[in-house]
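Instructor's aside before we start: the two examples that follow are unrelated to each other. I chose them only because their records fit on one page, so don't look for a connection. First example below.
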Amino acid sequence: MNLKLHNILKIKDADIEIGGLTVLTGENNSGKSTVGKILFSILKATNNVRQLDKMKTVSIIRRELLSLKKMFHSSENISFLEDIQILSLNLIDRGISVDEMRQILEIEAEKRDFSSRSVAIMQNRLTRIDKLIIKLDNPEIAVKDEFEAIAKSEFMEPLNSFGSKDSYILFHDETTDADGSDIELVINDGKVDKIRLWGNSSVEDITYIESPIYLHILNTLRLSSPIPTTSLRGIPSSLRRDNIPYHLADMAEKMLSSAEDLTGLFSQEIYGEDYRNQLDEISSVTGGEFVLNDKAKQLAFKQNGNVVPPISVASGIKSFGVLQRLLQTDSISTFKMLIWDEPEIHLHPEWQVIFCRLIVQLVAKGTPIVVSSHSPYFVQALRYFASAYGIEKDVKYYMAEESNETTLSTVKEVTNDLNRIFTRLAAPLRDIMNVDAVRNSMK
């Protein structure tokens, strides 16, 4: 798989191979997070649209039609509203058009002396139905709308680099079939100007982890998403707030998904003993495990018979807890990509090493993972375990470097020149190593 970016926010150019373990390095504000969030946005948008199949569309249309039927109280002179299920299917199959419905309902609304607001509500419901039908026949339009909504929640600014109008995103997946699949977006003035879809990617879902510290406010995050996640589609918009990035609500939903139905499957061949071993190792490291109160939709940390809320748990333990929950809820696998932004931040050196080993083990079993880091210690641990597990050929290293002239960054592969990473990221430590010299300079 391959991701290409041109003039996207901080990134001037990037050409990144993805599929095994992809390691993004660079200094602060070099664009590492931009790459991860763009990848999350484009794959999440296409998969959300893929999940909205014909029957789900019929279900949503049926709800809108029921609301319209209630507005008119009786279906006298409006025979098509008598059987909502048949009407839903007729709309999908083009047995009747939304425009035909609109003409009849507008006449009836006038006869019944509807208020201006009631007419507006009626028109809005008809427009929603029309858009759903258009999107079902035109996945490009659906992906465009979904991507723009997700990207807006992630970045809250136009995606073009400093006003540049020459911006594009291309995700190519060669693992689907002989021709592969493409998702290509051309962005002008902050809007998707052109979109091209070809085939379906092998990636069925994607998770972006920014920080484990959110574990104690998961339910708040879940209900604050401006974009409905799978379990929240249909929740009234009055319960939502447009104030958090979509990846946080997506993470919250996965952390709060019930794992009980999946737990018994870990012993089966489909998951393999390795997943159970990883869960056992996580419990051994943290001294406990996170458990879900499914009724209250809350996590708690269980240790030595005691149960404490996540807010009282160390951030390092939460990091392993996030990985535990992703494994338990089948949120990462061969077909489900994981992006983790700077996972080393909350981990002391020993736990960084253990965390890297778990990551490499997942990659060795086929899970595509992208991590960003500015820690040479963490990068070296990934490098070590990639060699130990025989997957060096599946690991690609990239460095984002800012240009002094444009302040934009170019992401370049440095797999065969890792000294560039260590030279750049370890420079500050070298500058402060000679304590004797600074002591002498003070005399």
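Example two begins here.
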Amino acid sequence: MNYQEAVEYLYTQAPLFQNVGQEAYKEGLYNTISIDRHLGCPHKLYKTIHVAGTNGKGSVSHTIAAILQASGLKTGLYTSPHLTDFRERIRVNGKPVSPDFVVRFIERNRDFLEPLHPSFFEVTTAMAFSWFAEQEVDVAVIETGLGGRLDCTNIIRPVLSIITNIGFDHMQFLGGTLAGIAFEKAGIIKKNVPVVIGEHNDETRPVFERKAEEVKTKIVFAQDNCKIISHKYINPSKVVYETTEYPALESGLAGLCQEKNANTILNAIDLLRRKRFVIQEQAIRKGFRDVCRMTGLRGRWQLVSRKPDIICDTGHNSHGLKYIARHLEELSSRPGAGQLRIILGMVNDKDVTQVLALMPKNASYYFTQASVKRAIDANTLKEMACEAGLKGGVYRSVAQAVSTAQREAAPEDLIFVGGSTFVVADLLSMPDFFIHS
């Protein structure tokens, strides 16, 4: 078995949620606990930090990992989904898991795994925990896949838990109210493990407070302890924050939503320091500034080409896309700004109508569909968009939409590509496409 065969085995033996959706989801921890015991409970060999939330958990996880790495700690990072290569999910000090290990893990464990019929995420989580143990990491930042309470990452006992925010997403699994979704996310809160809540509202705060009281742990609401004073965009992919502790804190993540993520991270760093993590100001600055280079993070307000600027973002629900829409409207209203062009595709289990209602009306749209089964047909998306007052053409692939938008755009125009993680993945997979560093 070679690496490509191993990955194909994972996709076929354990269906991938990002491709097929609900039928790939398995609720509960039975398989995870069984696999973990079979492997010798590798996650107990290093410290962990657990990150959940509707949006922002990827940005928060990567930035904290970069800060810890800059502090001299050998740092594991487990996130999902991947964009172009399975190995993106599992990293140590920014380097993806070895292809040989992926093969070796499957060959050694397939006889045990197959009778369990585990999900793709259950197998991948076990693989990540094992890789981090083999690499003897000091700490691993672990991002939940979906929810928290029954997410298969929730067997860890972290030194810190973080819940970025609560919004409407995956309601078929997590519930149809914000309080219900918050209850599922709050499942990662554990006894005597402090927790940072990035954003809250009147509906979600009591849920978190009850859980923290139940397990007798410290809870910090970052929203009540705002460390960001102001921000200034240097260019489409760089922002500088004035904070209460670090003047001119430069960040390589410049989306409008990132201010809230930055505040969550700074509150989390305070708690990690109290846990005797030695984290100097220099490491914080380096982690914020160089997060993409250090961890391989892509697709978060990423500038991929110039003249015209092409920006992509993996935001994919109304909670996340409202910030994107606002940022796009700000950029397109600046003096000298050209035409705003939006390449949009979505998947069939998202709040499509709410998203379309948020999107800028003054843009030219290129409706498309990503190369996954869950993608909404581009014609259907266009029909729904027309009802929301959005106008544009239909393109059968992301590549066709991008090349058409580039051809039609003037140098001063702005092209945005998004609506789905998989649209961004298709963009970043385009052959011979110049990716801005």
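The two ends are 34 Å apart (CA to CA).
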